[in-house]
Structures are given as C-alpha cells and as structure tokens.
C-alpha cells in the first residue's frame, strides 16, 4: 500500500484520528525542526505487544502530510494520546504528550528511534515509564487495536440513596495487601472480623479493593482473575458470617493498579456486581481522569454508575474515589454516593496521616447522614505509627465522622490494636446519629482543640498535639460551645475526668479525647 493510501486508510479506520490528529497539526513542528517534505521513515502503524500494563502502549501511528508530522500513541490507560510538536532531529522522532496529574510536568518528552526495523519508543506518562519496541503493522491491525470511545450520558436526576445513616465501617484490602489479594485471604479476613469481636463492635464491610479483575469475555462480561475462582461463593461466605462485602472498579479503561476498569461497560458491571451479591462499590477515577477531566464529566461519570447501581435493585453503597476534586461533597449525594474521598492516598506514617486528618478531611458542611467525607482508610495496626499516633489517627477519624475502614491484616491484630479499634466510646463518636463533622475550634502553638456536638447534647472534645514534644493546654467550656461543663469522660479509659478545666499535658503527636456534658 502506498503511503498516501495508508494514511487515508488509517484515518478512515479510526474516525477519531481526524479529531485526535487535528490539534497536533495545528501545533505543527517547532521552528527549529526542519520541515520534512517527504513522508518520513517513522510513518505507519507500529504495534507493541509486550509493553508493561501501565500505561499499556499497544500502538503508535505516525503520518506525514505536507511536511507536517502527526501521530498518536494508543494506550490501555488513556486510549489514544496525541503527539504534540512531533519533529525529526538527527534521525530521532521527538514529541511531547500531555501529562495530567503532575503540575510540575504538564508535558512529557518522548522519542522514537528505528532499530533493526523496529520502533524503539521511550517516554513517560504520570508515574509510568515507557521503553518498548514495536514492529510494523497494517491498517487492519490499526483498526483492530483502535480505542473505542464510550459515550457519556447527560447528567440524570439526583439519585435518592439512603444506605449509610452513619459512616460505613469495615475492612479493605488495599492498605495492607495492595493488589496481592485473593479469595482465601478475603475469607480469612471475614473469619477474623468475627473472631476478634470487630464485627460485633460495628465493623461490617469486607471490601476487596483493586486487583481482583480478570478479563472480559466475548460478551463483555468481566470475570475475576484466577485468584478469585468464584465471586458469588465468596460473597455468600462473607454474608453467612453476618457481614457485607464490597468490590472496586473505575470509570476509566484501567484501574489505578492497571486492571480492567468499567469504561464502556458501566451498566454491565453494575449488574455483575449485583448478581454476585456485592453490597458496596468503591469507584476510583484512575485512568478515567483523562476522559473526565472536569467537574461536569466527572460528575456525569459517577452518576452513570450511581444510576446503574440503582437500576440493579440491590442496595449497594456507592463510594466515590476521585481524591476530592471539584468539591465532590457538593454533588456526591446527587450521583448516588454515600461517601467520597477528600484526598489522595493515606500511607502508614504520622506525617501523611496528620496532613490528611487535620487538613484534608473535607468541608464539614458536606457531611451528614447518608453522605460522608472520606479521608481514606485506616492504617491502625499496620505498624508504621506509635500508639499515640494511632490514637490520634482514630480520634481524628471519629471527630471527622469519617468512614472507618480498617487496613491491616485482621489476623495479626494485637490486643492494643483491637482495644483502640473496638473502643465503644470512640466508635459512638464516629457514628453519632446527628452526623455533625467535628472541626478545630482553637489552635495554640502545636495544639489543636477540636469539638464535635453529639446527638444527646454532649460534645466530643479532642486536644491534639501536633508537635514533636509534649505540650500543655487547659480546655474550656467555650471550646465545647458550652457555658458550663458539668462532667467529662475520658474516651480511652471510660473513666470520669475530674477537674475538666485543669491544664493537661498531651504527649508529642498524641491526643486527649473527652466527651463533655454541660449546658
Ligand atoms: C488509588 C486509591 C487507593 C486504592 C488504589 C488501588 O487511586 O486512592 O485507595 O484504591 O487506587 O489501585
């Protein structure tokens, strides 16, 4: 096939090419690049078979017309990515790509060198480095590998979902196991949830996070991978223990860990999850950010899944995970969400936990029954923080009316970890029926005083010390929004705390947590 015919074939094969390539031509080659008058040697379709799953480069297409090079790289992660300012210099094809998610690097540099008839492609997208060799393909290959765009429906009516009167509590696989998760471990967690008393303390959900997905079949039905032989049987096992079970997907083509997402299969996946018997879905933006980059499209993409879940007729708690973008708390309920992440990921260290818990836990105005700010899952029990720091973690989450999703190996819970996680008074604060999210009312030096009004008129009061050394502070009735305090209870011990207004010393990174009564 001649080059011209080839070019026409590529453009015809994938209608998106016309639009995808147009902006590239508009940018044209930079002035320093000598115009290429003949079609260049990079022109054509290049196929990549063994590129790592993130971002999963499958194809590169290059065309030269009127001396202007245009092209794109197709990935599993973001679909086709247009080449920006492509130009050939000293036998190397250079271009940049748009790099979202990283303000310091809004574009990334890519290069292609021809080596032994192969295209050696190097580049980067977000955290993934690309260094792969592709071989020449045909326009039929290009058609077969073309990315299929899925239409995004217009925003529908608000979805009435009342499935989380109090913040959901349970366990999720991600913090401890990442995507190294399997059926056996999930069953073991359900067993441990019961045997440790965590279920009876209020923890109900056993949530499988990223890493369960396998392939879609010819009908597009998503199947679990080999580590999960029978999802329905697993859900039955968890349900038989008086627990509920959760699953994970993304509105993008790929999840954050590079597994199959729900892009183009939203209704189908919702039906699958319901048929398996799932009670909870965490829906994580991941690669969807490329397709849904603004408030309007993100909201519609969540609404699409929220409506699909509602249409199954099964009550499925909908957990939004888009890292707090676009004031999610102002619209999370409308798309059927009961909780929405307010931040990026937590890690098992005080600095990250504190940054999130003190400063990124979401606007209290957004929170209340059936709609909760989610500052991410717990790290209690994972070993990276001191006992004082884990107490601060738990106290911050309870004061914030945050979902309590444990993230450690429940089988390895120490007595100390269980005492903290099952403390009935801290759980009662978290799940207070009024659902008012607490907040800082006073900051002095390294100390922060937080108050959270409770349904019975009492007030939870936390004296946090963010500093590296012990610090002291005398709480006041005013801190609790009261005129007089008549009694105070220490949440950790359950003992009455005499002399409420006395100066108290709080250890470094520690907390004193009280429930005070008065008027
Ligand atoms: C992240 C998400 C994490 C976890 C992970 C799975 O985007 O914030 O909580 O779900 O993806 O790949």
TrEMBL record:
Tell me which Gene3D superfamilies the record gives. Answer: Aldolase class I, Golgi alpha-mannosidase II
Asked whether the UniProt record includes Signal among its keywords, one would answer: yes
- Alphabetically list the UniProt keywords: Disulfide bond, Glycosidase, Hydrolase, Signal
* Annotated signal peptide: 1-28
EC number(s) stated in the UniProt entry for this protein: 3.2.1.22
> What InterPro entries would the database entry show?
Aldolase_TIM, GH, Glyco_hydro_27, Glyco_hydro_27/36_CS, Glyco_hydro_b, Melibiase_C
Domain Alpha galactosidase C-terminal residue range list: 445-515
Family matches, as Pfam families = Melibiase_2, Melibiase_C
Highest taxon of the source?
Answer: Bacteria
Has the keyword ATP-binding been applied to this entry? no
Question: Broadest EC class?
Answer: hydrolase
Q: Which reaction does it catalyse?
A: Hydrolysis of terminal, non-reducing alpha-D-galactose residues in alpha-D-galactosides, including galactose oligosaccharides, galactomannans and galactolipids
Q: Hey, which family's this protein in? A: Belongs to the glycosyl hydrolase 27 family.
Protein name as annotated = Alpha-galactosidase
| UniProt source species | Novosphingobium pituita
């Amino acid at each position: 096939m001649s080059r011209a015919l080839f070019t026409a074939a590529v453009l015809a094969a994938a209608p998106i090419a016309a639009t995808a390539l147009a902006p590239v031509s508009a940018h044209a080659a930079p002035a320093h690049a000598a115009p290429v008058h003949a079609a260049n040697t990079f022109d054509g379709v290049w196929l990549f078979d063994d590129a790592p799953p993130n971002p999963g480069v499958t194809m590169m297409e290059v065309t030269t017309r009127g001396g202007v090079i245009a092209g794109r790289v197709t990935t599993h992660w973001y679909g086709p990515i247009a080449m920006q300012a492509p130009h050939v210099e000293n036998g190397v094809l250079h271009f940049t790509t748009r790099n979202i998610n990283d303000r310091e690097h809004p574009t990334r540099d890519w290069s292609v060198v021809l080596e032994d008839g192969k295209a050696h492609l190097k580049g980067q997208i977000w955290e993934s480095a690309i260094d792969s060799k592709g071989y020449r393909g045909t326009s039929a290959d290009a058609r077969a590998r073309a990315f299929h765009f899925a239409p995004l429906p217009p925003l529908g009516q608000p979805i009435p979902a009342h499935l989380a009167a109090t913040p959901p509590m349970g366990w999720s696989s991600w913090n401890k196991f990442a995507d190294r998760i399997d059926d056996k471990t999930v069953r073991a967690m359900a067993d441990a949830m019961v045997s440790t008393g965590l279920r009876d303390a209020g923890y109900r959900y056993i949530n499988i996070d990223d890493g369960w997905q396998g392939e879609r079949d010819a009908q597009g039905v998503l199947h679990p991978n080999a580590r999960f032989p029978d999802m329905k049987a697993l859900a039955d096992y968890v349900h038989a223990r008086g627990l509920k079970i959760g699953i994970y997907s993304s509105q993008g083509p790929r999840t954050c860990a590079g597994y199959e997402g729900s892009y183009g299969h939203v209704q189908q996946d919702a039906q699958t999850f319901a048929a398996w018997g799932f009670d909870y879905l965490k829906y994580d933006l991941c690669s969807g950010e490329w397709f849904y980059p603004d408030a309007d499209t993100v909201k519609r993409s969540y609404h699409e899944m929220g409506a699909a879940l509602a249409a199954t007729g099964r009550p499925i708690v909908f957990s939004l995970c888009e890292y707090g973008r676009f004031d999610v708390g102002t619209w999370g309920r409308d798309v059927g969400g009961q909780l929405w992440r307010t931040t990026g990921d937590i890690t098992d260290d005080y600095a990250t936990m504190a940054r999130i818990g003190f400063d990124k836990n979401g606007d209290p105005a957004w929170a209340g029954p059936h709609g909760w700010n989610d500052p991410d899952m717990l790290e209690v029990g994972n070993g990276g923080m001191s006992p004082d720091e884990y107490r601060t973690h738990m106290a911050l989450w309870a004061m914030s009316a945050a979902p309590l999703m444990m993230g450690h190996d429940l089988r390895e819970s120490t007595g100390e970890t269980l005492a903290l996680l099952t403390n009935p008074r801290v759980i009662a604060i978290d799940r207070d029926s009024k659902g008012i999210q607490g907040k800082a009312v006073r900051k002095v030096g390294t100390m922060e005083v937080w108050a959270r009004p409770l349904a019975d008129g009492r007030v939870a009061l936390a004296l946090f010390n963010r500093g590296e050394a012990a610090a002291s502070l005398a709480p006041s009735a005013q801190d609790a929004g009261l005129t007089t305090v008549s009694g105070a209870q220490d949440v950790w011990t359950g003992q009455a705390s005499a002399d409420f207004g006395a100066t108290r010393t709080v250890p470094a990174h520690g907390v004193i947590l009280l429930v005070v009564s008065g008027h």
